[in-house]
Amino acid sequence: MKKIVFICLVFSLNAALSCFAGKKYYVKPDGIPGLAGTSWNWASNDLHAMIEKSVAGDTVFVAAGTYSGGFLMKDGVIVMGGYTANNSQPTERYPIMETTDPAKQSILNGGGVQRPLTLLAPFSIATTWNGFVIQNGNPSPEFKKGSVIYSNTDSRIIAVLYKYNPDTKQGMMVSTKEVKKQWGGHEKEVPGLSIIPNRDSAKNDFAGANHTESILSAFGDQSVDFSQENYPLNGNYAAYWCDTLTIGGYSNWFLPSPGELQEVYDADIKLLLKNLGKNLDYPYWTSSHAGNKLAWAYCFGNGYVHPALKYVSYQVSAIHSFTLPEHPDGIYFAGGGAFLCKNGILENCMVKNNVSSSKGGGVYVGSGARLINCVVEGNNAPEGKEIYYEPVTGIISPLANDDTKLSVYPNPVKAGSNLTISGSEKEDATYQLIHIATGRIMSKGTLHSGKNTIPASGQPGIYLLLLRSGNKSYQTKLIIN
C-alpha cells in the first residue's frame, strides 16, 4: 500500500530546545510503578501517571516499548518517543522513521478496543507527540463509562457518560459546559427540600432531579442576585441555569446531588473532564440543602463535601439522565488511531492498522490540528480511510496570525482544469491538494510570489488545499466538479 507522508514544518534548533524548558519526566516499560520519573534510572512504567503530573511546558520522554491503553494529550505537555533509555546519554534516540523493529519503537497500542491517542477539545498551546507508532486502535461506538457525547448540531463534545447500564440502556451524563453561579435563595426556605445534616448523608443523596424541581418551585426566576449591584431578583442561580440548559438537542438537565457528583468522581474520568475544559480545582454546587443559609458543595480534588453560604459563587455543572435510543449517534468515535483538535500535533509518527466505524481510519484532523512528517497507512474507515480532515469553511483560513491576503479561484472548479492562486507573499510557498474522503495527496508542489496556476484533480470531490510559507499555514476547502 502506498504510504502517505506529510512534511509540513521545520523547526529551528532554538525552537526545539525551548520545547524542553520545563520539567522532564521519563517512562520505560521496565520502569518501577510509583517512581518520580526524574531520570532514566528513576523512570516510571506508567505513562498515564507521568502525563497527569506534568503541566504546560513539561516534557515526557518515552523509551522504546509497547504502551497499552488510550492516552489523552494534555495542553502544553510535549511527549517524545523512541528513546534508548541510556542514562549516560539520556537524549539518545532510535531513528524513528527508519526502523521497523518493534524493539526500537515507542508503540501506543489500542488493543483493537480503543483509540490510542486523543485530544478531544481545543488546546490553548501547540502540543506535540513526537516519535510514536500508533496502532491497533478501534474506538468503540458502544455507550459505556467515559464515552463522550458529541453534538453534530453544535460541532463539539457536550457531555461525558459516567454511568450506564447496558441491560436497561439507562445512563447518566455530566455536561462539559459549566458556569459560575450562586446557589440562590439565601435565607429562604425551600418547601419539599429536606435539610441534609452531615457529610455522610450528603454523599448518600442521589435525588438531584427532585431537588432541582423543589428549588425551581420555590424561587422561579425571582432569586436575589448577590453578584450584582442593588441585588436584583432574577434567575441567575445554579438550579435555574441547569434547568434552562439545552445543548446538542439535550434538555432536562438538573443540578446534581453530592451522591451523583461522587459517582462522577468514582468513574475515574477526571483527566478526561479536565481535558475537555472543566475546572475541577474549585468547588461545585450541589442541589442538596444544608439549611436556609447553607447548601452542600463538592470538591473533585479529593471527593470532599462541605456546607457553604448560598450567596457564594461556585462552579456549576449539569447532569442529564437518559434511556436509549436518545440521539444514538451521539458517541463520537472518529479517528481510529488518533483524534486531534486545535493545537494538537503529531510529528514523526507512524499510524497503522487502526479502524474507525466513522471517519478517519488512521487520524481525525480537526481544524487547527497538524500532522508533520507522519506516515499513515493500512488503516480503514467508511469515510477518510487513512485521514479525515475536518471540513473547512470560507476561502482562506489562516493557521497563524498575519495580514497576508490570498485568493483561490475558481471555487468550485471543473475537474481537470486549472486553479489560480494569487497573493502578496514575498516568499515561495508549498501546496498540497488532499482528497478529503481518502486522505490522499493528489498533487503537491511549489508556488512562487504573485499569481500561480496549478492543475485541479481530474477526480470530482471535496478537497483540502494546504498552503505553507515559512512558519505560516493556510487552508481552504476546494470543490472539484
TrEMBL record:
The keyword Signal applies. It comes from the Bacteria. InterPro entries: Pectin_lyas_fold (IPR012334), Pectin_lyase_fold/virulence (IPR011050), Secre_tail (IPR026444). It comes from Candidatus Ordinivivax streblomastigis. Residues 1-21 form the signal peptide. This is T9SS type A sorting domain-containing protein. Keywords: Signal.
